[in-house]
């Protein structure tokens, strides 16, 4: 039944759209650092990673720096995360699980040939 198949596909798209919506909501919570609520931040960070994995969605670029991918701790720079620029890369060290993540393409990657 072709209509049935199309219906299923639409449902799948809806599911992804809802997952993306939740991602955005959670990022909104993580970005709101004016009123930090430790428990809320932590559960939001964990949910964000979980949702992204379950729905096989990429973690949006604006949230990649906000959450530790290993221990799911929300990063508060200067408190539990350290940022250094080295060789043209942004290096974020999580001070809770001491995992290191590097962002950026390395030396001179911003230059064009
Ligand atoms: Zn960590």
Report on the structure:
By secondary structure, the chain is an alpha+beta fold. It has one domain (2-103). It is 45% helix and 14% strand. It has three helices and three strands. It has a three-stranded antiparallel β-sheet, with no helix packed on it. A hairpin with a 2-residue loop joins β1 (81-86) and β2. α1 runs antiparallel to α2. The longest helix has 30 residues, at 2-31. The protein starts with a helix and ends in a 10-residue tail after the last strand. The relative contact order is 0.11. The model has no long low-confidence stretch (mean pLDDT 87). It binds zinc ion. Zinc ion binds at residues 68, 70-71, 73, 94, 96-97, 99.
Helix tally equals 3
So what's the overall shape? globular
Distance between the termini: 54 Å
Domains counted in the coordinates: how many?
A: 1
Helix-strand category: alpha+beta
In short:
The protein is of the alpha+beta class. The chain is built from three helices and three strands. It has helices at residues 2-31, 38-54, 61-64; strands at residues 81-86, 89-94, 100-103.
Secondary structure: elements and pairs:
Elements: H1 2-31, H2 38-54, H3 61-64, E1 81-86, E2 89-94, E3 100-103
Antiparallel strand pairs: 1-2, 2-3
Helix pairs in contact: 1-2
Could you name the key traits of this structure?
113 residues; alpha+beta; 3-stranded antiparallel beta sheet; 3 helices; globular; binds zinc ion
């Amino acid at each position: 039944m072709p209509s049935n198949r199309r219906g299923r596909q639409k449902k799948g798209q809806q599911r992804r759209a809802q997952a993306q919506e939740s991602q955005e909501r959670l990022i909104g919570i993580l970005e709101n650092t004016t009123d930090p609520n430790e428990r809320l931040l932590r559960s939001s960070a964990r949910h964000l990673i979980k949702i992204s994995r379950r729905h096989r969605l990429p973690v949006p670029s604006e949230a990649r720096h906000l959450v530790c991918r290993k221990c799911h701790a929300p990063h508060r720079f200067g408190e539990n995360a350290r940022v250094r620029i080295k060789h043209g890369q942004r290096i974020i060290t999580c001070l809770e699980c001491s995992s290191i993540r590097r962002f950026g393409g390395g030396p001179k990657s911003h230059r064009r040939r």
